[in-house]
Amino acid sequence: MSDIDSQTPRARQRPARREQPQSRRRGRAGAMSAVVLAVVAVAAVAAYSLHAHLPFGLNSSRPAQSRSTGPTGATGPTGPKSTRTVSVSVLGSLSAPAARIAAVPYGTGGALLLGGYDAAGAETDTIENFQSATATPAGTLPVAEASGVAALLAQNVYVFGGPSSTIYELSNATFTDVGSLPAPTADAAVATVADTAYVIGGYTGTAELNTIVAYTPGSTAQTVATLPVTLRYPAAAAFGGEVYIIGGSTAGVPSATVYRFDPATKTVAVFATLPHARDRETAATLGGLIYVIGGANATGLRSRAIYAINPANGAVRLAGVLPAALADAAAVAGEGEIIVAGGTNSGLAAVATVYAVTPVAP
């Protein structure tokens, strides 16, 4: 199975060949010899013709192209240029492995990382400030929580849901309870347009949600739209004043659909389709494209794929690959890069690695 995308099927195995009677083998061997001689003769004529008509400046005696080795082995003749447009490097690490962290852009191209599940699967109250490849302690949450989401609104950090419906505001190192979502909301996505956060889908603890809940500081959180289906573990990113809702699962079945939500008209429409269905992915906007990073398929297999979605036309293509399969990570856009923190690996264990996903020249 491909380790670039966990839903690329294995090549089919060929059935074992049966032994043939000796006389039949001899007859076939003679026939095959004649065929081979004919093919060789035709090839010789073709080679001479090709040599005689090579364009000027090309050397007919140059060696054949070598095969390159990719993540899954040989990938065929080396092409003139890679189609991947992002590179991935290890940027640093968290103080400890963690997954399903809430995150916001913070400081100078860094991120504030809040809560999450630790290596033992317990919810944490940890807050870390990740700057210049280093994570430093930055306080604690009012309660331990994981699978919540966070947004930066009017220079303050807001944390939504997790095991509860509470909305916390972090201002001047102090948390304040400033309201509630309509229902307890874990495993949701969030995206910000202007000074409004949109909390999308999620799970109440007993039921999946299909709601898009808007929250603007100083107001009450309210449902402003509904999705065509319930979605748990989706990703979301904003671009051009609209919100793109990516993947997620309905009743445990991952989706490949990308929806576009227009806050001005409160409408939701299908916008694009991923090459493979996934949930537990993460996403961020950088340089006019939305990058969808990692995720898992219906059997829980993690993916290395990084897809780029073009908001202008809905085109989706593979932009790069992670060094290792990953799901349940947090992602925020920094200065010229996307910071991808924590998550779970192919063994379903929490990780502490922080990656930088950086666009490269085509």
What does this structure look like?
The protein starts with 21 loop residues before the first helix and ends with a strand. With 362 residues, the chain is mainly beta. It has one helix and 27 strands. It is 9% helix and 48% strand. Strands 16, 17, 18, 19 and 20 form a five-stranded antiparallel sheet that branches. It has a four-stranded antiparallel sheet with strand order 3-27-26-25, with no helix packed on it. Strands 4-5-6-7 form a four-stranded antiparallel sheet, with no helix packed on it. The chain has two domains: 1-7 and 25-80, no CATH class; 86-359, 6 Propeller (Neuraminidase). The radius of gyration is 26 Å and the shape is globular. Residues 8-82 have low confidence and may be disordered.
The CATH architecture assignment of the largest domain turns out to be: 6 Propeller
Helix content: under 10%
Task: From the 3D structure, determine the CATH topology of the largest domain.
Answer: Neuraminidase
SSE arrangement, N to C: HEEEEEEEEEEEEEEEEEEEEEEEEEEE
Mean pLDDT: 83
Number of helices: 1
Number of strands: 27
From the spread of the alpha carbons, the general shape counts as globular
Structural class: mainly beta
- Spatial separation of the terminal alpha carbons: 28 Å
Uncertain segments:
8-82
The main β sheet shows up as: 5 strands, antiparallel
- When the domains are counted, the total is 2
Rounded radius of gyration (Å)? 26 Å
The CATH homologous superfamily of the largest domain is called: Kelch-type beta propeller
Report the sheet-strand fraction.
over 45%
